[in-house]
């Protein structure tokens, strides 16, 4: 839980960095540089873990593959394969998000539409994974959605445009990313998974940036502070914390915890940009916190009612 809250904190404060970075470079080039930095920031960690495993007489392939079926051992037990799958989803989601923000030019509108992934996660889990949705989680999601509306949407939705459709699809992709990590990432090394998915996203972003001719090193130099923060902080640290945290927290509650990034983005705006929230915004924050706290209740109930409850079908929720 703590990993996911810190993840949301870093992502929230990265909002300022992303806005500043977009003033100097294009979305694809911005993602190419920051995901490259994110991958490079994990190399020292990988080297340390590799040496430790050699000392302990273990290999990365031996770590955390219990529970994978016979077919999965040959393909989905590999952090490289899982990381590449996550990387493709992450590349698509992050690229569409950046372009959606660029075209929409409305942070509040974009924040609310993207935050719909907290609703889409349990819906996708119910439709494709046949996971039941508990009543407390339903109430928690409703409170969080209302809170996001009060916090982010202050001028109405108006008519849907291209930016809105891009951000809506982004929300679906981020929800998919959460479920893919939950389904496949719990059986592989989290650090290696993060490195591979960052590298995959970076390579695809470099290819896209080269195709559109948006590689701009002068712009990168001008925007190096936000790029460094977004790369090492938002990518290298936060996405790794997501991969680690989701090994312990089911996807619906994980999405609610990570959705706190919108709250922390408001805090970051107040600290670094001098923004002040309205009473409506404070009410929205209170509802988001209420929904997040309520979402933790189902994790404790099955321990006392494990004989009759099916609220948490995955074993890692009880670790």
Automatic annotation (TrEMBL):
What the record says about family reads: Belongs to the EamA transporter family.
Q: What highest taxon heads this organism's lineage? A: Bacteria
Keywords associated with the record: Cell membrane, Membrane, Transmembrane, Transmembrane helix
Q: In which broad location class does this protein mainly occur, judging by the first location in its UniProt entry?
A: membrane
- How does the protein associate with the membrane? Multi-pass membrane protein
Q: Which PANTHER family match?
A: EAMA DOMAIN-CONTAINING PROTEIN, OS03G0707200 PROTEIN-RELATED
Q: What is this protein called?
A: Membrane protein
Where does the protein end up?
Cell membrane
Locate the transmembrane regions by residue number. 31-49, 70-90, 110-128, 133-151, 157-180, 192-211, 223-244, 256-274
- Organism, by scientific name, is Bifidobacterium callitrichos DSM 23973
Q: Which residues form the signal peptide?
A: none
The record's Gene Ontology cellular component field reads: plasma membrane
Domain EamA residue range list: 3-151, 163-294
Question: InterPro entries from the entry?
Answer: Diverse_Substrate_Transporter, EamA_dom, EmrE-like
Q: Pfam families given for it?
A: EamA
